[in-house]
Amino acid sequence: MPHSLVPLPYPHDALEPFIDARTMEIHHGKHHQAYVNNLNAALEKTPRLFEVPLDRLLAELDSLVPEESRLAVRNHGGGVLNHNLFWKSMKPNGGGAPTGMAADAINGAFGSFEKFKELFDEAGMKRFGSGWVWLVADAGNTLKVTSTANQDSPLTVGQRPLLGNDVWEHAYYLKYQNRRNEYLAAWWNVVNWDEVNRRLRG
Ligand code: MN
């Protein structure tokens, strides 16, 4: 079964004014769609891998995917999975302080929500070029702030992504141009803590 583009869980303009509708249209309809198309093209060479769930494919990249298509699956499979998570990590009227388990876990790991945000934004600013900033749970279930380059998934290094922000320029350039710091700050207004709680329980 080929992979397909997941629908956005809200209209393109739902995250205005923090993320503009045009960016959402291009990001979902063009960039995310391209990762889906390129992942399917890469898997054509090994059709049995169409049956493997994408999270497993990325967690076991070296053992499951033949070397000739490994980089394509890492890049485009990561692109598909990261964006699937990204759309769900946001919602209209989101933001505010974390709730429930997420609040306890973040306060426990980082001392406070403010400190966590500071570490997350710093990691987002330090990512040179394109990539992602993450809240992950490591193999011992310790929460960490990390960053990956390009479309690398935390799953490939044994970490479970709980929340992720896309710091590729395509995620913010139309509205924020070179001001990644402003995008990172605005993004906290659309964070979906319900989804983080769902992933923590998961
Ligand atoms: Mn993106």
Describe it for me?
With 202 residues, the chain is mostly helical. It has 2 domains: 21-88, Helix Hairpins; 100-201, minor pseudopilin epsh fold (3-Layer(bab) Sandwich), CATH 3.55.40.20. The chain is 50% helix and 10% strand. The protein is built from 9 helices and 3 strands. A hairpin with a 5-residue loop joins strand 1 (131-137) and strand 2. Helix 1 runs antiparallel to helix 4. The protein is globular and about 45 Å long. The two termini are 25 Å apart. The model has no long low-confidence stretch (mean pLDDT 97). The site of manganese (II) ion has 7 residues, from helix 1.
Q: What's the arrangement of strands in the largest beta sheet?
A: 2-1-3
Number of domains: 2
**Shape call:** globular
What count of helical segments does DSSP give? 9
Distance from N terminus to C terminus (CA atoms, Å) equals 25 Å
In total, the number of strands is 3
Report the average pLDDT across residues. 97
Low-confidence stretches: none
Named CATH architecture of the largest domain: 3-Layer(bab) Sandwich
Order of helices and strands: HHHHHHEEEHHH
Characterize the main sheet: 3 strands, antiparallel
Structural class: mainly alpha
Bin the strand percentage. 5-15%
